Amino acid sequence: MDATSICPPPKSPRLFVQICALNEEESIGNVIRTIPRDIPGIASVSVLVVNDGSTDHTVEEAAQAGADLIVQHVGNKGLARSFQDGLDVCLERGADIIVNIDADGQYRGEDIPALIEPIRRGQADVVIGDRQVSGLEHFSPAKRLLQKLGSWTVWQASGVAIPDAVSGFRAYSREAALRLIVTSQFSYTVQTLIQSGKLGLVVASVPITARHTPRPSRLHRGTLHFISQQAMILLRTYVAYEPIKMFGALAAPFLLVGAGLLARLLLRFAEQGWQLPGNVQSLIVGSISLAIGLLLLITGVIADRVRENRRLLEEILYRIRRQAARGPHEALSANLSSAPPLS
Hints:
The chain is of the alpha/beta class. It has eleven helices and seven strands. The protein has helices at 28-33, 58-65, 79-92, 112-120, 141-158, 174-179, 189-198, 223-241, 243-271, 280-324, 328-338, and strands spanning 14-21, 44-51, 69-72, 97-100, 126-130, 170-173, 203-207. Strands 3-2-1-4-6-5-7 form a seven-stranded mixed β-sheet, with helices on both faces. Helix 2 links the parallel strand 2 and strand 3.
């Protein structure tokens, strides 16, 4: 039931650019104005802003700059929730390609045509903008190292080799947007990338230009907080998709230690004429270690059964979302396929 092939958009796809914003009155207007409204091969370009409980003039600035639709959150729901709500609204409005761009001006709207090109050509389901971190002067050496290490870790977990795993400048095909579900409360970047890899979606990367944004992040409270939150998301998502590998890796050391100690104990038992006056510590430690390893393996098997059930639920949810967000071209195709044969 995994998505294993690219579903190319129609010949004249409708592009929606979504912007999640929290108190971005100083920059959101410029971001919207840089979004190209006439892109070759694209039927229309619409801008959707998800206002995540801003207390300044973000909404007014977005409207004046030409936002086509503004989704209002009552209070601050967080970036992950805003991203998911934006995807849902774009799909309901008939989007064929969805681009997510930050409201702080870090990314350039002029890079959108290059970002969506692999999707428009039917070569990718998800495209991530590569900030080319190694060449960014406003990134410290430590931040560059952490970014590379983080991207490598996400690659190992997802099977998708992307040089800038936490880049928020992304494009999604309609099929990918229907498949992906964000359950994190913090961010969407790592979770959707691992989901894409496990669902068989084709992920591509294109180089983009990233600007320096001097204001503090609205998402996290510092580098340590960001790393810890993303690590938890990565761990939870990976366990959800690969429970046997995760719990098997955790169980292996306990099983090896337990089996080794008990095997050594059995050998000593045989050497001493089947008498064992000592070595009680080895018996206790080996038995406990072996029991812990077996419990972890059993947990992995149970989690794998839960994973199978979740896969079925994901497929059901995908079909419900596809039905609810059916675009005009999909509706036409469905009507033609269900029409009675001509006599």
